[in-house]
Write a structure and sequence with these properties.
Elements lengths: L4 E6 L3 H14 L4 E7 L5 H8 L4 E5 L5 H11 L4 E6 L2 E3 L3 H11 L3 E10 L14 E4 L4 E3 L2 E2 L2 E2 L10 E3 L6 E5 H6 L12 H11 L3 E12 L12 H17 L3 H21 L1 H22 L13 E2 L3 H6 L13
Length: about 325
């Protein structure tokens, strides 16, 4: 069984990358790691070269987004499988081999997500990815273990190996040739929702994404983009890119139908969260209109994934009907 190659994109954070690599080699001393120093300015480069000489490194003097940087490393690789791993993670025992087992067990599977838990509160899931991603009828993404800001404690309730709609790029194993064949990440996204878009394309092409519960990693979250109480850049990219994914992966008539209901929900959220949701939504409108005109597809089978799509509004069910956990939802 060929070992996956681990791809890490690193901006700055000496302790962060040291902790990440230390956990990788603690699990597997022979792990194959490729690391891109993405306009790194601190002492991380020297630390990695001194402490982890087997790591293959690349340097860039321009700032790449996660999508472009991930594609860059995939194109440099010759491995059959690659794992995209965030630099602000710590991995657990057998995390890599468990992902590969999940992929091998499921015939149509081309990509697998780990169980993603909080680095700071290790009994809880982490906001990004948690126990696997889904979307609702309006294209809103959510996870098993996390719906909007409601994050669950991990009590083993999501320890089943299942097919999911999208996997998070925090810890994401993928067949390299399939990744390239499906067009890799859309670099216009820069960062956020590029994995949602990729997984959507995979689903539309009859491929499957799975969740591996025995592959556990711990994630700090948003380390590479400065965390503030409200980070407008982050919220804008999330809002804009989620629309981009919706537009790209549906036919034009379907997009127009979805956007009517989606826009009403966004206007409601604007009243409830004027800064967090309102301004990013308004800022994204021009680029969303441009995408509708020039990038809507005509030949995509809308939601050609059966029960993978939540048939109601996750926002209404969560905020109005008080459904706080994935297990309270009804996909029927």
């Amino acid at each position: 069984m060929e070992e996956p190659e681990i791809h890490i994109i690193h901006l700055n954070g000496e302790k962060v990358i040291d902790n990440c690599l230390n956990s990788i080699y603690k699990d597997d001393k022979k792990a194959k790691v490729i690391l891109l120093f993405n306009q790194t300015t601190d002492n991380s480069i020297n630390i990695v070269k001194r402490k982890y000489p087997s790591v293959k490194t690349y340097l860039t003097d321009k700032r790449m987004g996660f999508a472009e940087a991930s594609n860059y490393l995939v194109k440099k690789s010759k491995s059959k499988y690659v794992i995209l791993l965030n630099n602000d993670t710590v991995v657990s025992k057998n995390w890599k081999s468990e992902m590969l087992k999940t992929l091998k067990r499921n015939k149509k599977c081309i990509a697998v997500q780990s169980k993603i838990k909080s680095y700071y509160e290790r009994d809880k899931f982490e906001n990004a990815g948690a126990a696997g991603g889904f979307i609702d009828k309006y294209g809103y993404p959510f996870c098993r273990g996390r719906i909007f800001e409601s994050v669950e404690k991990d009590k083993g309730q999501y320890d089943d190996e299942i097919r999911i709609f999208w996997g998070c790029g925090v810890s994401f194993l993928v067949e390299r040739k399939e990744f390239i064949k499906l067009g890799m990440f859309d670099e216009s996204f820069f960062m956020y929702a590029e994995e949602l878009d990729f997984c959507w394309r995979a689903n539309n092409n009859g491929k499957e994404i799975w969740y591996s519960p025995k592959s556990v990693i711990y994630h700090m979250g948003s380390f590479s983009i400065k965390e503030e109480r409200i980070n407008f850049k982050k919220e804008y990219l999330i809002s804009r890119n989620n629309y981009f994914a919706l537009i790209k992966n549906n036919s034009l008539p379907s997009v127009l139908g979805i956007l009517f209901g989606r826009t009403l929900l966004e206007l409601i959220s604007l009243l409830r969260f004027p800064l967090r949701r309102g301004l990013p939504f308004l800022m994204s409108i021009p680029s969303v209109i441009y995408r509708i005109i020039f990038h809507s597809r005509r030949g995509v089978n809308y939601f050609n994934t059966g029960k993978m799509i939540y048939p109601r509004s996750i926002a209404l069910d969560h905020f109005i009907r008080n459904k706080k956990t994935f297990k309270e939802l009804n996909f029927a």
